[in-house]
Amino acid sequence: MGHTRLYRNGTLEAEGFPVADVSEKVKDPSAVVWFDMCAPTEEDLHAISEELGLHALAVEDALQHRQRPKLDVYDSHMFLSVYAAAFDGESGQVRIAPATAFITKNALVTVRQSDDFSIEEVVRRWDEGASLARHGVAFLLHGLLDYVVDSHFETVEAMDEQVEDLEGTVFGDRPVGPEDQRRTFELRKGLVTLRRIVMPMREAVNTLLRRNGLNGDGEMTPYFQDVYDQVLRATEWTESLRDLVSNIRETHLTMQSNRMNLIMKRVTSWAAIIAVPTLITGFYGQNIPFPGFGHALGFWASTVLIVVASAALYRVFRARDWL
Known about the structure:
about 325 residues, alpha+beta, seven-stranded mixed sheet, magnesium ion binding
């Protein structure tokens, strides 16, 4: 028993039946069948390949774990590769879950690498939109894409909140610590990962929109168009966040450089002030007679000279904002 469903005339007729019965049900042109395979073996995929007439290249792509999101069109079916995404707020990392799908005239076969790709969430969307089930495979495919694109949108939305928190650290009173630097790096790394799976979705969904045979009477076209709009929004949002995180990182480095320059300026100014008394006491420490040598007047003269010179340098440095 596995994830299986049979629709007929827009009505859910059966579910949870053995995958072995799928081949018989697919032969009925009035039936629409979906079944799911989680972490299948090469033998499992070759078995369904013979029953559904799948292209060898599509089966090979389904076995590979690092396919880019795409839609390949063959004579008898289409092959779809997608990734669901989720954001971990604690670590700042983006987790992705790959899935592929074989799309035939009256069957949808989903292939997942693990349970991280929530097929239960896809089924829930099908149940909520059961009134569209009469559109067959287009209805099933829309639910799958809707889940995937919504996961992208929710991920970039969660990352946007993290970026807003980082913006507050840019001009804060305290220096940027290692934790903020790590978060900035992880967010940028996560946005790169998200961009890699979001950008190609535009081409895949756009290809589906141009497939008139899949949309049937055109009633599903607005639904696929809505998914396409969500893809565009997620793509643009991801791009803008990447730029913003880069700007935050550059601003962090600039602020650190400015703080370092200010510290060096102050240290240098104090060193100059201290150098003057050192120079005067060193001069008076010569082993030759000088004005006031051997008298208390010489000590007081050097003391007054140290105080006056130091005060003068302090006022000059303060006037130039070096202290």
